[in-house]
Predict the 3D structure of the following.
Amino acid sequence: MLLYGYYRSSAAYRVRIALNLKGLQAEHRFRHLRRGEQRSVDYLPTNPQGLVPALVLEDGTALTQSLAIVEYLDETHPTPRLMPADPVQRARVRAFAQAIACEIHAVQNLKILSRLRALGHDDATVNAWAHDTIAEGLAACEALIAQESGPFCFGARPTLADLALVPQLYNARRFNVVTTAMPRLLAAEAASLAMPAFSEAAPERQPDAE
Ligand SMILES: N[C@@H](CCC(=O)N[C@@H](CS)C(=O)NCC(=O)O)C(=O)O
């Protein structure tokens, strides 16, 4: 398999964690987002959205969208399971992951921040947009798992929810979001980062890190 990513891409970070947890090898290819390499003509056939990640399977099939990729890996390599067997818990895990991927990350990713700058907003305004989006979204995530047992988001083992949470907390710190009122999220992050599968997927550990 080939994984197209970028060290600071939180969506690629999710897939790196899944590959590590499942002990799967992939060749890593990098697309430098600040140089626009995700929109190069040689990459667009792989991901017509011009985004990372993309996972290219052995038969050449290209998969896009990190949550879909993680669920594909979970279905084809079920050990360890990243989705609960119980349908209600599975729906709650998906809801948590989508709350991050669709309603936090998608609103503060590079493409959106670049558009805000192109519309004439200054750096302070753009950073405030990202900060407020993340702070408000993560506060809701804290409430979503308040009644769940830990130490991970949903119980004693990592799920798709933790794969979404850890990269989003990394982003939160880039935008100086204060996380002290999010003890449940911080506990799940600490439990996750104690596992090499998570810590080795961290942006600063990637070969293209700057
Ligand atoms: N929902 C997508 C998000 C992908 C995404 O936004 N990727 C970012 C990096 S985290 C990207 O490639 N940005 C490039 C750009 O905005 O031009 C997923 O989960 O895969």
Summary: The longest strand covers residues 2-5.
